[in-house]
Amino acid sequence: MQNLRILGKGKTALALKKRFPDAILYDDNDLESFDKNSNDLTIVSPGMPPHNKLVLASKNIISDYDLFYDEMPFTIWISGTNGKTTTTQMSQYLLEKFDSCYGGNIGVPLSGLNKDKKIWILETSSFTLHYTKKAKPNIYILLPITEDHITWHGNFDEYKKAKLKPLELMSETDVAIIPALYKDFKTSAHTIYYNSSDDLCNHFKIDKTKIKFNEPFLLDAIMAMISRKIIFGDVDYDLINSYKIDKHKVEEFRDSKNRLWIDDSKATNYDATINALVPYKDKNIHIIIGGDDKGASLKPLFENIKELDIVIYAIGSNTQRVLNYCEEFKISCVKCEYLEQAVKNIDKNLKENSIGILSPAAASLDQFKSYAHRGDEFKKFVKSLSWN
Predict the structure, then answer these.
(1) Where in the chain is the domain with CATH 3.40.1190.10?
(2) How far is residue 261 CA from its own chain's centroid?
(3) Quick one: fold of 251-383?
């Protein structure tokens, strides 16, 4: 292999360095020593946006997917705005006995995956897809796309373009499961389009009534079942129904007064929040919204929830934006700025048919280490509420 440069010093970059000890790592602190005229193969860590100075100064850029493409076994790529992680983990749960492993954007980076496995299941981010030039999946599962990562991509069109990019590279022997909205996108893959989970169930002869999950996890479960049916031709309802959803994803718990709270800290964009509220639309909802919205418009969220019996508690760096939306759509809103204060305010208003939910429609890094840290703090604050 020719000389290798790696842009970034995070998890993906360090895993690549372990695999290729002679590779040189660069980040923004190394700009002065960076050779802008080099033709060395340059791998960009997913977190580095295309407008980064090192990226702009590089000539021979590929993704880690491209780097390992020739040694990949049969691959399933899973992308979309919401549900990627759950669908990937569910797919692994259903395919593990067939010698699969999973990684990519979650778990193990590509450089650490076992190339002797028969199937790789890869959660695939728009960041990685942006830099990918030749690698393609055997099966591409694309969950619905809504506005996200606008700061990184520059605009929504570029984000969509990245998500649809695998379709350009796939061949007639590959299978793509794609929202019907993108039916006109040119691809050689055998493509199944869907508007809803019912479309997929009808096409693949899956009985939705036998699946225990409700939205937002029902579509994830169906997609995982489809990946197994495409390869092995069977459906295992008992196995999928035994899968346990991760923490911080519409995770229900009760406080000392037996009132229902939901930790949905994983909802880092408005579409995730909209889906999380579906099972609770008939209840009196007290929802915590706010954080780093990554430049995305939240208007679709407020258009969707304006008719609900709902009160919003605004936190995070976009508190004022949330307040402005609430004023525009005439939704009751309490300015809290911080999570603990939001929990205390909800505590005063939560009744028997009410729910208190953290589903922020925004990333967490403005005030927390991660969405998991935010969710853990939320549960801690709720559990510390007193009877008085």
Answers:
(1) 68-241
(2) 23
(3) Protein-Tyrosine Phosphatase; Chain A (3.90.190)
Q: Can you spell out the DSSP letters for 305-334?
A: HTTSSEEEEEESTTHHHHHHHHHHTT-EEE
Strand blocks (E) in 24-152? 24-26, 41-44, 61-62, 74-79, 100-104, 119-123, 139-142
The CATH 3.90.190.20 portion of the chain extends over: 251-383
Beta bridge partners of residue 175, listed in sequence order: 139, 190
pTM, two decimal places: 0.75
Q: Which fold has domain 68-241?
A: UDP-N-acetylmuramoyl-L-alanine:D-glutamate ligase (3.40.1190)
pLDDT digits (tens, 9 = 90+) for 143-192: 998 866 677 777 888 889 999 999 999 999 999 999 999 999 999 999 99
The kind and range of the H/E element at 69 are none
- Given a contact cutoff of 8 angstroms between Cβ atoms, the answer to whether 316 and 290 are in contact is yes
Question: What is the phi-psi region of residue 273: left when phi exceeds 0, alpha when psi lies from -120 to 50, beta otherwise?
Answer: alpha
Q: How far is CA 226 from CA 34, 95, 190, 363, in A?
A: 46, 11, 14, 30
What's the pLDDT at 197? Answer: 93
Q: According to the model, what pLDDT value does residue 387 have?
A: 60
Residue 86 token pair? 């759950």
Burial 231-251 (b: 16+ CB within 10 A, else e): beeebeeebbeebeeeebbbb
**According to the model, what pLDDT value does residue 246 have?**
81
> Which DSSP string do the residues of 259-287 spell out, in sequence order?
-EEEE-TT--SHHHHHHHHGGGTTSEEEE
